[in-house]
Amino acid sequence: DGDPDPGETLDLLVTVENEGLLASVESVEMRVATDDPYVRLNSAVSSLGTIPPGGTVNNLSAPISLTIDPETPDGHALVVSVAFAGDGFEVEKEIDWLVGTPVTLFFDDMERGSDNWVGNDGQWALTDFDSHSPACSLTDSPTGFYGTETDTWIELDEPIDLSQAATARLSFWHIFSTAGTGDPCCVEVSSDGGATWTRLAPVFWGTIESWRREEYSLRGYTGTEDFKVRFRLVSDWFLEFDGWYVDDVSVTGPPAGNVIPAAPVCAGPAEGSASHSANVVLAVENATDPDPGAGLTYGFCVFADEYFTQEIASVAGVPEGSDRTEWALDVELPDGTYWWRCYADDGTTRGPLMEGATFVVDGALPQFTALTFFPPSPNPFVGETDLAFDMAGGDRARLSIYSVDGRHVKTLLDGEAGPGLEIVRWDGRDGNGWKVASGLYLARLESGSEVRHRKVLALR
Hints:
With 460 residues, this protein is mainly β. It is 0% helix and 49% strand.
């Protein structure tokens, strides 16, 4: 239906115009990116080729595909960035939608009088001559044609509160008949209650006789309690026409009441660093939550490509750690470079994805023997078990317990250790002091560039 809904897979079709009149633009490439954790890009790059002077091209032969998570909340503001590059230029544009059924912040079908509106010259009024929904519409010239050399408008009498909206949409239905480019119909918006106005593109002139719906993104005009919209017709000295008819005006946005958490920050592995183990632990500094409640959980995604389209591992609902949150991948990765991102979830909605980070798995690197991790004793265990390791020299070491699906359970040691034998006792409890369930767990020992693992079985 042209509007994105939870669970849908959509194609993004874009038309690009070369406004130059002399030179072609060659090798144009389109790339789509997003920080939205509810969107999965199935493809992100499309080659547009050459755009001739004054010409247009589109990506109909290679549309960008994206899938919206079925758990996306109604009214969620979906934002993607579309960048175009080629032949010495680069242009970027943000496109946004509201997913599912958004909240109606304002609606007027012009059936209850014109109390919602105030004009500058008394010309605008309701008419039953024509309308989109029965039986009235709002027009600049209810008794005949508009005059020459006029500047007439009607605006909202009371502002709309968009202070909690990340984005919003303005839509309306209209028909018009004007004398051409000299008599434009303009939609203008204000973020300061009408003190200053911005004209939205496109403007309208000429004639359309069938009712048409227009929609504008208000992403750049949110965060204010004093949003207003007005409809304005300007005419020159030459001809008079029937004018502009407007009906079913609405402003919609996401639900209010919850401020989303911030994006986490990568805490490891270091950007581009190489891991000598196919089992990698990803870590983020905990995100801030403007609406602290039951606590945050985290979602991690790992990809095989820089465009974040080839997912190879993901997890949701990882409980927040004390200062940082970790996830040990539950798959062994072949040698190569990998890209990953993370988001925080406050239980109501997910915050934005962190900036993409990379790490390298390189099993061909020399394996070091300066760190020995002994088998846990006892294993299986009931109550407690000892985890022993030997370091040839003193160094910083980190010993952590993970569940078999990669969730961080507890950090037993994070500091200087060695040289020589070190014994760390695990009492079978998680980071919150609760006894863990019976099952298999992974003990991970890190020191410098060396990583060792041991499996340990807890019994109750």
